[in-house]
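Protocol step 4 of 6: record predicted structures for both targets in the notebook before any analysis. Target 1:
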Amino acid sequence: MSTETVKKDILRGGQFLVTETKSEDIFTPEDFTEEQQMMKGSVKEFVEREIWPHKEEFEKKNYKLTEEIMQKAGELGFLGVAVPEKYDGLGMGFVSTMLVCDYISGATGSIATAFGAHTGIGTMPILLYGNDEQKKKYIPKLSTGEWIGAYCLTEPGAGSDANSGKTKAVLSEDGKSYKISGQKMWISNAGFADVFIVFARIEDDKNITGFIVENDSENGITFGEEEKKLGIHASSTRQVFFNDTQVPVENMLSERGNGFKIAMNALNVGRIKLAAASLDAQRRVTDLAVKYANDRVQFKTPIAKFGAIKSKLAEMATSAYVGESACYRAAKNIQDRIDLRLEEGNSFAEAELKSFEEYAIECSILKVACSEDIQNCSDEGIQVYGGMGFSADTPMESAWRDARIARIYEGTNEINRMLAVGMLVKKAMKGHVDLLGPAMKVADELTGIPSMDKPDYSELFAEEKEMIAKLKKVFLMVAGRAVQKFGPQLEEHQQLLLAASDILIEIYMAESGILRTEKNAKSHGADSQKEQIAMAKLYLYHAVDTINQKAKEGIGSFAEGDEQRMMLMGLKRFTKYTNMPNVVALRNTIAEKLTAENKFCF
C-alpha cells in the first residue's frame, strides 16, 4: 500500500465527528496478532502469580512489595514495551503498549499507578525529548526496571495550572550546573524513585523548563512522609523538596522554556494509557460480581437470577466492552499515524510526539469515559455484594477506593472535558477538521422539511448507525451555534463546554462499540455476536439519553425564543428512535451469558 493510500485511510484526530467510519477500517481486540496474544497471556499470568495473591499486602501499604513487583516487571520486559530495542526495550508499538498497560493494571490501583507513572510520565519525556546521550544513559535502566522513574510537576499552588509553578532553577556562576529549589507534591513513586523529571522556572521565563534529576540525598533532595490516601495504598506518594539541588546543564531536557510543552505532551500519552489501565479493573470487578451473584442465595434463589442484579451485571459488562472497543480503536489510529510519519522520514521522537498530539482529543475522551466507567462499575460491584461489599475483607471496597483517583490525575476530568472541545475547535480553525461546513448543513436542515420516507433497517445496526449520524448532528448544532455566538470567549462558558464534551464523548464511545461489533459480526456471523450486539445497542440507548439531556442544557444556556424552539425541535428529531430497543431484553441477554459462563466472557 502506498503512503498516499495510507494517508487517505487514516482519519485525523477529531475527524470521527464529521466522517462516517467503516467497521472494516477500525482495529479491535479480536485483531491482536499472535505476538500480542502471547504478550497478553504473559502479563495475565504475571498478575495472577505476583500481584493478585498479595492483594492484602497492597492494602496494608507495603511499598516495598510495589517496588519489587516493578523490578520483576522490568526483568520480564513489561516496562520497556514502548522503548526501542537499541535502548534495551521491546520496541513493540503502541497497541502492544496499551495492551500491557491494560492487563497489568487491573488487580490493584497501586501497581497501576506505579507502572503508569514509571512507563509514561517517568520515562517518555526522556525518550521523546532527551538527546542521544541522555537516552543512552537513562532509558536502558528505566526500561529494564534497574531504575524507577518519577515525574515532579505538581506544586501546592500549581495543579491544573501546571505552568504556574514556583520551583526555581538558577545557573551557577561557572555555567556548568543549575541549582533547583522548590517543593513538589503528589509525586507517584517518590519513595523508591532513582530519577525524577523535574520542572522548574529559570529566571522570569514565561514557561517552565524540564530537567533530569538523579535521586541523591546528599544533593539537597528530601521527602515528606507518605501521603495518607483514600486508595492506591501501596503507591508511594510523597512531597519532594529540592534545596539548591545541583543539576548539570547537560541534564536540561530539550530546550530552555520547553517544559510546559513536554508536560502537556507527556499527559496526552498518559491519558489514553490511564483509560487502558481502567479496562482490566472493570473486567475483574465484573468477573467477581458475576461469581458472587451466582453463589449468593437469597429466598432460595441465586441472586444472579433476579432482574435487579441482571441489570447491574449487564451494565457493568457493557461499559467494559465499549471502553475496550474505543481504547484499541484509538490506539491503532495512533500507531498507524506513527508508522506513517516514520515512513515519511520523521525521527522516532518526532513521529510519536506528533501522533499523540494529533489524537489529543481522543486521549481526553477516553480518559474521562473509562475513569468514570470504572468508578461506576466498582460502585455497582459493591452493591451486588451487598453488606459484604462494604467490608475490607472482600475486594470490592478497595477497587472502589482505587478507582477514585483516576478522575483526578493526568488532568481532572473537568479539565479534560473542556480540553476535548477546545482542541476540536482549534483544529477546525486550523483547517484540520471541517466543522463549519457540516455545522452549516445541520443549521439548514433545521429549517427544512423532514423526510417522510420509510427507512430500510433490514441490515444489522442500520438504525443504530443512522442514530450515530444524527447524534453527530446534535453536537454540530449545539457546538456550531455556540462557537458562532461566543467566538474566542467560548472557553469562558465552562458549563456549556462540559455539556458539549459529554455529547462528544458519548458519540465516540457508542460508535466504537457498534463498529467493533459490526466488524466481528461480518467476520464470524451475527449469531456469534448476540450478546455483543446487545451491549452495543444498550450503550447507544444510554448515550442517546445523555446527549438529549446535555444538549438541552447547552441550548438553554445560550438560545431563546424562536431559535431555542427550533433547536429543541431539531434535537427531538435527531434523538428519536424509529424502533425503540427493548432495554430489559438487552440486559437479560447480556446477564444470562455472564452468569452461564460464570465470568466476564467478552
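Target 2:
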Amino acid sequence: MKILTVVPISKGIFKNNLSYFTTKDVKLGSIVTVQVRKKNVPAIVISSAPVKNVKSGLKKSEFSLKPIKSIVSDSFFRPEFIEACQIAGDYFVSSLGLIIKDFIPIKILELNNHSTNNKKGGNYFETSLLQTTKKERIQNYKSVVREEFAKGKSVFFCLSTLSDINKFSYELRKGIEKYSFIMHSNLPSKKIKEIWIKALKEEHPILIIATKSFLSLPRNDISTIILENESSPFYKSQTRPFTDARKFAEILASKIKAKLIFGDSMIRTETYYRLNPTMTVSRILSEAEQIIIDMNQETNTWQKTKIFPLISLKLQQMIKEVHENKEKIILFINRRGYYPYTVCNDCMRTLLCEKCETPLVLHKKENEKNIKFICHKCLKETLAPEKCPYCQSWRLMTLGIGIQKITEEIEKIFPHIKLFRIDSDLIKNSKQGNETIKNFLNTSGSILIGTEILFSYVNQPVERVAVISLDSLFTIPDFHANEKVFNTILKLRSLSQKTFLIQTRMPNKNLFNDATRGNISGFYKNELDARRESQYPPFKLLIKITMEEKNSEKLKRDLEKTEKMLEKWNPLAYPAFIPKVKNMHIWHLLLKIDPQTWPDKQQELRQILSSLQPLCKVDVNPESLL
C-alpha cells in the first residue's frame, strides 16, 4: 500500500496538500479522483511513498486516511509544468491546486490515459522582445515557425482573447493548416478534447494557437513560446489566484528550456526595462498625416453660441471630405453612455449609485424616449431625476462626453452620412460586432464611431481615424494611465492610411507628440523617470491586498489588524477608487518591495500573506491599483 500526496484542483479548497492511500502504482503527475467534504474532485499526484516510510506519522495523525476513488489519467502532466505551477504558487501567494486549475481546460481532466510523442523540445531558455508593427511581427513569427519545424520542434503561440486568435490564426496557419491546432475555452467541451488528443498524437511538429489555459498541453517537443499582444490586460486574471500568464509563460519556458518571445506594437514599460533596458526601439512609422487639434481654441465658438464644441471645425471638414471621396472614417471616444457625470450646481455633489457609490451615467435607451441613469458596476437602471436627491435643487448639470452624445451630434451635423456605432451597450456578442464592422467596411463614405471594443473587431486600416476625446483617462489615479493612453493612440494610428487626428485640451503634452510620431523610446524615457520618482514598477514590486465588507466598522477593524501584521513593510491603506460596490465597502493595502527579493527572500511576508483570512484578496503585480 502507498500513501499519495495530492493537490485538489477545485475552487473553495484552500488547503494545498492532502493525503490518501491506494494499493495501485500511481505515477507522479497522474490525475486521480478523491473525496473532499463528501464531494468527489479531481486531484494531481505530487508525491508517493510506501506506507512503512510514513507509519509513524500516520499513528500521530488525528484523522484516518481515505482511499483514492479512481485513477483518471496516468502521468497526465509534464513534470516541468508541475514545477512551474509550484513556483507560480509561491510567486502569486496561492495554492498549487488553484494555480494548476488556472492553466488547464477543466474538461480535459475527464480524459482517460493518452499518449504523446517522446521527442525532446527546447535546448536552452532565453527571452526576447519583438516590438514592431503587426505586419512585421507576423512575418517574424512565420519565420520562427518554419525554422523550428525544420528542426523537428513545435511552437506554442499564446494569445489573451478569442478576438486576437481570430486576428492572427489565418495568417499564421497558411500552408501548415494540417499541423496547426487552435484551442480556446469558447469551443465545445467535446471539440476541446478532440483537438487536445490530436495535438498530442501528431508525430509532425505542430503550431498551437491558444489561450493561456492550454499552456499545460504536454507536448515534449515545444521549443518556442510566443506570447503576442504582451500589453493586453487580459493576461492577468481578475479573480483568485490572480495569476499573470506572462509571468507563468516565463517560468514554464525556463523549466522546459524553451525560447520565449514577447511581441506587441508596444511592450509594457516594466517588461521592456526588466528584460532589456538598453534596447534601442525604433519609431513606429506611419504614412498618415498626423494632426493635433487644440480644443481650447474652439471655445470662441462656445462663447458666441453657448454650444460647447465637441467636433472641431477641422474634423468636420475631414468628415465632409471622407463622404465626398467615398472613403471611410473611424471616430474614437473612450466613454459609454450620453453623459458620464451629473453634478448639482448647489451642493456640488456628483450623483452616485446608492449601492456602489460610482457616478451614474446618463443613457438614452435604444427606441425609448426616456433618459435613464445606469450604474456601470451593478447595472441598476433608474429614471433620471428632475431634482438633486441630496439637496432637492433643480440645478443639475451634466458633464463629460459619452458615445451616445457624440453620435447624436454627428447625426445633427451630417444627417445624410451613414453612421455605424460599436460599444458594449449596443453590441452584445461577437456576431453583432462582426456584422457591424462588415457593413461599415462595405459602405463607402461612412462613419464608424466606437469605444475601445472596436479593437476586437477592426482588422484592417481605413483612410481616416480621429480621436474625439481621451483626456479623461489622464484623471484616473493609476500608474498605468499614461501607458494605456499611449498604447490606445498607437493602435488607432495604425488603423489610419491618410490622416490621423487627435482632439485634446492638452495639446502640449509630450505624450501626444511622441504618440503621433511613433516615438516609443521617448515615451519610455519619460515614463521610467516618472515611475522611478514615484517608486512604481519596474523599480518596485507591488502587492495589493483588497478587503471587502458590508459593515464599514468591521472592515475598519479588520483593516487595522492587517496593517499591524504588515507594519514591517510599511503598508499604505486607501479606499478603492469606487469605494462601495453592491453595498460592499472596499479598501486596499499596498506594499512596495524590492522586486529582486520576491519571493525567495521574503519568506516571512509570504507566510503572513498566506495566513490572511479568505476575504483578503492578495494580488501580486496588480494590473491596476484602483
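Step 5 preliminary note on target 2. The first helix runs from residue 55 to 60. The chain has a mean pLDDT of 87.
Proceed to step 6 after PI sign-off.
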